[in-house]
Specification:
Layout: H1 10-20, H2 23-30, H3 37-44, E1 49-51, E2 66-68, E3 71-73, E4 77-79, H4 92-102, E5 107-109, H5 117-123, E6 128-132, H6 138-150, E7 155-159, H7 169-174, H8 184-191, H9 194-202, H10 222-232, H11 239-249, E8 252-258, H12 261-270, E9 274-277, H13 291-302, E10 307-311, H14 317-325, E11 330-333, H15 335-367, E12 380-382
Parallel strand pairs: 4-11, 5-6, 6-7, 7-8, 8-9, 9-10, 10-11
Antiparallel strand pairs: 1-12, 2-3
Length: 384
């Protein structure tokens, strides 16, 4: 594993990713909307909770397995959907899916992935979800559903917080837009990372793999497909559209982007089997609550009628344990495994998952807990 052996935390992988990627590409992973206040709170809000250990407990055997959406996975951590992963490493989503399967956990492929639904299914033998939007072309939505059914995806995950794209100023300043602004500074930035640049020019072009051939008349270049996708986002989407999609799929269905108890209840009433408490990693609307801050009220409102998954700010095993003690079924995150991907491809993703798994196991032992289901409110103390 080379340098990956010297990465002992997710933050170590982040630093390694920063070394290996052009600044503009790293900032695309690392950045968020507006002043990035929400991004910071997603992480820091976990500090409002302290863990309270129970001592003299038998922790000779630790079981981190948990059931999520009908699948038994080895730890309460799943891989969130993230778009265009081949920007960060030439193996992209294939590396992520293979590492997730090897770790016996769930990976959710993005609608705007750089690997297709079918190609990901070919390398990911473990449980997999597909993240989907309600687009203007409802025929395309139905096609995605049927493709996921044929490829044996276990669940759909509808993202509901992207009526428009968030204001990500780091990308504008860096010129990392579509179409890309090939300014001298950006070209120098790319050239300063020869390993990344070499694979960029010697491997197939990065594209939106799930919509190739869909852009009418314009072609399949990245700009044309981006324009096509951008035009598909529908500001008129309502709960009726979500209910229709749930009916069309007829299986496990999660709604991602919930931050209020009222919306969580509405999602359950619509037929969702899972609620993903998320603010899109701070990349959409800034100045919204951190997921962990609203998690307790959403868990109370759902009252066991659907699984509640926390997405956002997870960097440590202790973060996962705090969310579970607050009532979450499991946690999801994107940046931790993307840092691993950029740091070393599939072995880097595997290293990120190994770090989190070992932290969860060790922290459960130190907390005096043998099984995930034994975590509860008694293990937490809230501080100002």
């Amino acid at each position: 594993m080379g340098d990956l052996d010297r990465c002992f935390s997710i933050d170590d992988l982040r630093r390694r990713a920063r070394q290996r990627l052009p600044r503009a590409v790293f900032d695309y992973i690392d950045g968020a909307a507006d002043d990035e206040q929400t991004l910071g709170r997603n992480v820091s809000s976990f500090d409002r909770w302290q863990l309270v250990p129970e001592v003299l407990r038998d922790v000779s055997e630790i079981n981190t397995a948990v059931d999520v959406q009908g699948a038994r996975i080895s730890m309460p951590f799943l891989l969130s959907p993230t778009g265009m992963s081949r920007l960060f490493h030439h193996e992209g989503e294939r590396a992520v899916g293979a590492a997730a399967a090897a770790a016996d956990t769930t990976y959710s492929l993005s609608s705007v992935s750089s690997v297709s639904i079918e190609d990901l299914a070919a390398v990911c033998s473990g449980p997999k979800w597909f993240q989907i939007y309600v687009w203007k072309d409802r025929g395309l939505v139905r096609e995605f559903i049927e493709r996921c059914r044929a490829a044996e995806y276990q669940a759909l995950c509808l993202t509901v917080d992207v009526a428009v794209t968030g204001n990500r100023e780091r990308d504008y300043r860096n010129g990392l837009t579509i179409p890309m602004e090939f300014r001298p500074g950006l070209l120098f930035d790319f050239a300063s990372c020869p390993y990344w640049w070499w694979h960029k020019i010697t491997t197939p072009k990065v594209t939106f793999a799930n919509v190739v051939g869909k852009a009418p008349a314009a072609g399949d270049d990245l700009t044309s497909l981006f324009d096509y996708i951008h035009a598909q986002f529908d500001r008129s989407v309502t709960w009726d559209d979500a209910e229709e999609m749930i009916h069309q799929w007829g299986g496990k269905f999660l709604i991602k982007g919930i931050l209020s108890a009222a919306d969580a209840v509405r999602a359950v009433e619509a037929g969702a089997t899972g609620i993903v408490v998320s603010n899109h990693g701070g990349r959409q609307l800034d100045s919204v609550p951190a997921p962990v801050d609203v998690l307790p009220e959403i868990v109370d409102a759902v009252a066991g009628r659907a699984e509640v998954i926390l997405d956002g700010g997870v960097r440590r095993g202790t973060d996962v344990l705090k969310a579970l003690a607050l009532g979450a079924t499991a946690c999801m995150a994107g940046r931790p495994y993307l840092f691993g991907l950029a740091a070393g491809g599939q072995p880097g993703v595997a290293r990120a998952l190994e770090i989190l798994r070992s932290e969860i196991e060790r922290d459960m032992a130190l907390l005096g807990v043998q099984r995930v289901r034994d975590l509860g409110a008694r293990h937490l103390r809230q501080v100002d």
